[in-house]
Amino acid sequence: MEFTDVVRRRKMVRNYDPEPLDPAVVDRVLRNATRAPNAGFSQGWSFLVLDTPTDTERYWRACTEGGDSTVEEPDEWLSGMMRAPVVILPCSSKAAYLRRYAEDDKGWTDLDESRWPMPFWHMDTAMAALLMLQTATDEGLGSCFIGVPTPRVQRVKDEFGIPPEWDPIGVVTIGRAASGGAQGSPATRPRKPMAEVVHRSTW
């Protein structure tokens, strides 16, 4: 598929065929993710791959189970998302970036976070996630990027043994797109015209 077609066709898929994916395809998704730009070649990302029904169920349960062990009844959106055969949690490590920039070739001698104008550890991992979405499109698959519900982040980390210095920036779901499913915001909101979002020479 031509790159322009990948960009044009990529969309957030919210309903999946649960049929497992070829592991080689999942490996390509992950391999391409590691080609994302990253400050200082810090590579402060890791990817938790859940590609069995047991593991994906563990993820959704960790995100929906209440403190009294009750589970939220899934709505149309959640039901469709839960059918994805592959769930990937891209995780970022601030510590990896702070340590990298305290190395001799970077010239900093401490781990002062205030030197960073933006959290590049999250930004770089988000770019890796975008490459996952684009690769899935190139493979003829559907995908979606969503957040981990804030109150459930620690529960998800505990469930899968994610170390303290690693934080999931969101979730990438991948699978064969199925018909139906919940509509996303693009179904009700128009895309802004280029003239409204592109500023040349001055704002």
Task: Describe the model.
Strands 1, 2, 3, 4, 5 and 6 form a six-stranded antiparallel beta sheet that branches. The model has no long low-confidence stretch (mean pLDDT 94). The chain contains eight helices and six strands; from the N terminus they run H-E-H-E-H-H-E-H-H-E-H-E-E-H. By secondary structure, the protein is of the alpha+beta class. It is 36% helix and 14% strand. The protein has a single domain, classed as NADH Oxidase (3-Layer(aba) Sandwich). Helix 1 packs across helix 6 and helix 3 runs antiparallel to helix 7. The protein has helices at residues 3-9, 23-33, 53-64, 76-81, 94-100, 120-138, 153-160, 194-197; strands at 16-17, 45-50, 86-92, 142-146, 167-168, 171-177. It is globular.
Distance between the termini: 36 Å
Query: How many DSSP helices?
Result: 8
Describe the global form.
globular
CATH C-level name:
Alpha Beta
The named CATH superfamily: NADH Oxidase
What is the N-to-C order of secondary-structure elements (H for helix, E for strand)? HEHEHHEHHEHEEH
The proportion of strand residues reads 5-15%
Mean pLDDT value = 94
CATH topology: NADH Oxidase
Give helix % range.
25-40%
Radius of gyration: 19 Å
How is the topology of this model organized?
Elements lengths: L2 H7 L6 E2 L5 H11 L11 E6 L2 H12 L11 H6 L4 E7 L1 H7 L19 H19 L3 E5 L6 H8 L6 E2 L2 E7 L16 H4 L6
Helix pairs in contact: 1-6, 2-6, 3-7
Gist of the model:
The chain is an alpha+beta fold and 203 residues long. The protein has helices at 3-9, 23-33, 53-64, 76-81, 94-100, 120-138, 153-160, 194-197, and strands at residues 16-17, 45-50, 86-92, 142-146, 167-168, 171-177. Helix content is 36%, strand content 14%.
